[in-house]
Amino acid sequence: MQCGFVFTEEVLQTTYCDIELDKPKRDAFVYAIKNHYWYQMYIDDLPIWGIVGEADENGEDYYLWTYKKLEIGQNGNRIVDVNLTSEGKVKLVPNTRIPMSYSVKWKKSDVKFEDRFDKYLDPSFFQHRIHWFSIFNSFMMVIFLVGLVSMILMRTLRKDYARYSKEEEMDDMDRDLGDEYGWKQVHGDVFRPSSHPLIFSSLIGSGCQIFSVSLIVIIVAMIEDLYTERGSMLSTAIFVYAATSPVNGYFGGSLYAKQGGRRWIKQMFIGAFLIPAMVCGTAFFINFIAIYYHASRAIPFGTMVAVCCICFFVILPLNLVGTILGRNLSGQPNFPCRVNAVPRPIPEKKWFMEPAVIVCLGGILPFGSIFIEMYFIFTSFWAYKIYYVYGFMMLVLVILCIVTVCVTIVCTYFLLNAEDYRWQWTSFLSAASTAVYVYMYSFYYYFFKTKMYGLFQTSFYFGYMAVFSTALGIMCGAVGYMGTSAFVRKIYTNVKID
């Protein structure tokens, strides 16, 4: 039975349904009360919470709250406040009939409509001293890393340039006898196309798009207070993602063209559907579990069809436009060095210079700069707090990008200095490994900060955390590669090559 009420009209205690309490239903209520279940409802987008029931002191008898008293505050013709009081404690006895009732009382309020969400915000949590300290700590890390990269690399590169200039002045006999080493030796291979260029360029294009979506959505959230409307953040993210599809096509298509790729239509399809397929695949899998459990989190079939239509009729055409622009405007391989026809053999090097080791270690510092913010984001999403400090999130995004670029540049310099020219995938994966540490942190958060259990809650949590971590990894990898690519092009432009 559905119930409703009219604006400003008070409702006396009214029964809206009766529960035939057989043994399975009583067991379900007892289970919910034992585990402190609570429910959430919305009135005019304002959330209200209530508990299912309570047990007596001995834990032998269980009681259900059957009467919901709603007190709604109005300012003019707007709802600005909602409060719920649960009364009518009824003992759970099998094979009985329990009536569920509600009442509505209206009151005038001085709360302005634009300020009605203020009481749900938690400044003591989000603006805690630790939050400020973490931002300051990350900012100091950025200053340290930028200074370290500037000092070490600039001094080292200056010495490298001086050594290479001295070698240019030697005659051929001295040069043959000289001990040549370092990143200059791989100038004929450093701009060689990466392995699997189709997948690589698709990942870079998708990462650039995710970065642009993150930046735009955070800016919009800072300006518009998206938390005041249910679903507005998700709707904004979907719209911005679809609108920024040309970014994906431009960067992915131009990179694939520079690397000599010829199957550009296939690359465009993979780039366009990489992220949507990952998100939709995970959502549909979790949706089947939600339908099995009759959960309210189940996504309606119409929403699924709408998302598929957005992918085929909006994202794909815009991605095609971006790909064509990227191939024609910046798809020429204008590298500062020629690529040798025969690949240079990669010499043996110490174990910590291997790309696999660099990839594993590359994500530690970027994760260290954001893990406190991850705690606040996880808490707002999984503990149902309203996240509203998007200025913090913008600072963390900027800090993450700077740290990621600095770390990948240092890793790439060491790799090239060991005369290993496989820097494209190494720079991408060393930055993307941040996502592995974020996903590992999500395990800690699940077991120690939440009380989730069961197949549905576990799959829901780890499924969407996998999507979040993967998207974060692709974004960090693209940012790291773009910064490293500019660095590599710069150092090989400034050195004389025979």
UniProtKB/TrEMBL annotation:
Family under the similarity heading: Belongs to the nonaspanin (TM9SF) (TC 9.A.2) family.
InterPro entries: EMP70 (IPR004240)
One Pfam family recorded for the sequence: EMP70
GO CC list: membrane
Compartments in which it is found: Membrane
Record membrane topology: Multi-pass membrane protein
Protein species of origin: Cyprinus carpio carpio
Protein name per Swiss-Prot or TrEMBL: Transmembrane 9 superfamily member
Lineage summary: Eukaryota, Metazoa, Chordata, Craniata, Vertebrata
Keywords, comma-separated and alphabetical: Membrane, Signal, Transmembrane, Transmembrane helix
Gene Ontology BP, a term: protein localization to membrane
Keyword Signal among UniProt keywords: yes
